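Reopening this one. Same input as before:
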Amino acid sequence: MARSPNRAAEPLPAPSPPSRRGSRAGPGRHGGAVTGAIALALAAGPLADAPAFAQAGDGGGSGGGGGGFLRSSGFDANGQALPPSAPSLSALESFGFPQSPGAAAGLPGRPFDWRASVGGQLLATDNILNTPTNRQSSIGLTLLPTISATADTPLVRGFFSYSPSMSYYTNSTGQNRINNYLTGNARVTMLEDRLFLQLNGFATVGAISGGFAPVGTPLVAASNQVQSYAFQAAPYYVHRFGSYGTANIGYAYRWSDQTGNSVFAPGSSTPFFTSQTAQGNQGWFILRSGEEFGRLLMSLRLVGTVFSGTGVYNNAHQYTASYQASYAINRWLAALGEIGYEDARYSGAVPYDVKQVTWGAGVRITPDSDSALIAAVRQRDGFVAPFVDLAASIGARTRIYGNYRETLTTSGVQSLDLLNAITYDALGNPIDRYAGAPIVIPFAGTPIGALSGPLDGGITGNPAGAASGGSFLSTQSALMRMKSGTASISQLWERDSVSVNYYYQESTPVAVARGTTAFAQTGNSFGASYTRLLTDVTSLTGYVSYGWYTTQNFGSSSTWTARAILNHRFSDSVFGSLQYGYVNRGAYSLGSQTATQNIILATLRKTF
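Same output, byte for byte:
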């Protein structure tokens, strides 16, 4: 459903659901019908019984005009308008995508619903520690209980899923452990159209060393695993001044934690990762213009955050003030501008201080409701950097995405920022709520085990599929200038789908926590996947990726991964999967020898 230009941006009072539309004949735009069919055939658990599925790119759009280059509300996995989002700490806040893709309508949902499932996974591998030496073969059994709940009422809307993973290995007892995977996103209306409470959270596990494909959670030694948590609670008040504008004032409590063993680079006596905790108390005031100003959309933002915790966020702060504007030159072209000031300080052996004028300039191009491009240059966080977001359709079956951005963050707080930027597609896979693009890191895997990922066809059957390890580059405790870019193209047919993607990431330390060290890294990765719907209840997926890395003081390395996954739905409540995977980490990031790993996984899940 197209919105008026000036209503497509900033947090609005409790948005109404989009208009209901029937499904389209044939494959649908961007393969919506195929995606929905695969989801219905294979998802085992809550998503299989969900009242509706989001169809990326099925309608939506900014409705032309000049508004909406700020944060839009978007739609959730049930096709409902998403609640207003609290401002994040991200430097990308101003030039967010103009409008999340729309969603196809489905059957009416239950006001409150919950699902429970239990799964078992049998694993066999020839290198459980994923090391070049001391290879250990092992057989493991993992118990996979899941509980999830959804709410869709005038007062509460959201979902919650918790999936602990309890693993036992026959001859590698040091690997026995319980990992926590959790995801949740909810809005509570405390006063109609005025006062709201936004709740977000997730928990996941990844590999500290990095050096793995962007997709999936790798099987590594317990000493190389990091358990991550991120939670946010944000009450806020919204007031509309008729057609003249909207005021939004609020507070957010933000907490992140990463727990794991201290990890050292070869030859170093100082760890590059230690367990870290950060808390943020954030307040904001946003004043946004309304329809009365026609082609001109303006926003005044005052955001302040005081941090506490360990490492670089000990006694840190970030204060920003900015004025942003968008002007519609014509139906498809808008000019973007920003001016402001920031005062930020982060702790470390050498603190990182920023006190400067901020600015930004760019354009937004929206040739149709399914395609948009934002290109801008901004000065923020102490540096000047480009920002690009692209989502476009090529015919009815092909969709392309691309983005590039630079941020100042840590691995823990980066995850907190992304809590405000994700929604889910029909299979429960995470996508950017503004562009509809797949999110690769750190929300790319599923909480099922070594080879799980978005290619698993709904094996978990719940939105906890958003949890991932983010094991592309090493997890470090330093404050990083992070450069990242993605590009992908997908093609969907009646029973087949193909996607090709590229991912780039570069991290450069700017503040190093006392008692730790840090190093720069650069990584590139290409991946391709093919899925064939063999029958209405059986699918086969193949996936291959190749990546190469450069690590400061340790030279270059590479890795490639291959997987084959057979999914089958035995009944409405029983789902099974058989997978084979191969991982090759040649001269891997923090070492000089090749590590190879073969894994076979058999999974069975029962939903109640």
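So the earlier flakiness isn't reproducible anymore. For the record, The CA atoms of residues 349 and 514 lie 5 Å apart.
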